Amino acid sequence: MTPTISATLATAAWRKSSHSGDEGACVELAAVPDVVAVRDSKDPAGPVLLFPPAAWAAFAAAPPRR
User: Fold this and answer.
1) The overall pTM is greater than 0.90
2) 22 in any annotated domain
3) Which residues neighbour 53 within 8 Å (Cβ) at sequence distance 6 or greater?
4) Residue 51 burial (CB count, 10 A)
5) Which of 1, 31, 45, 56 is most buried by a 10 A CB count?
6) Which of 21, 15, 62, 19 is nearest to 38 (CA)?
7) Element (H, E) at 48
8) Residue 40: which domain range?
9) Exposed (0-12), middle (13-18) or buried (19+): which is 48, by Cβ within 10 Å?
């Protein structure tokens, strides 16, 4: 991760996914320039996944798998 992305993520406005349950299995998202960042809410200092906006939109639009 570049220093610029790291600094941007440190000040990003993270929000919890509306699909997160009450059992503590939560995902947080942040829209930062040119990417969508995803992290585990229980480990905010842990790893972050970065997705191009089009890839995230395709993932979010996909029907749930059961």
Assistant:
1) no
2) yes
3) 31, 34, 35, 36
4) 16
5) 56
6) 15
7) none
8) 3-54
9) buried
Cα separation, 61 vs 46, whole angstroms = 26
Q: Rounded to an integer, what distance in angstroms lies between the CA atom of residue 50 and that of residue 1?
A: 10
Query: Tens of pLDDT along 16-28?
Result: 877 666 666 688 9
Domain assignment present for 40: yes
Sorted by sequence, the CB contacts under 8 Å of residue 64 that are 6+ apart come out as none
Residue 33 lies in a domain: yes
**Count of structural domains within the chain:** 1
Q: Is 39 exposed, middle or buried (0-12, 13-18, 19+ CB in 10 A)?
A: buried
Instruction: Please report, as a single letter, which amino acid is at residue 36.
Output: V
Q: Does the residue 64 lie in any domain?
A: no
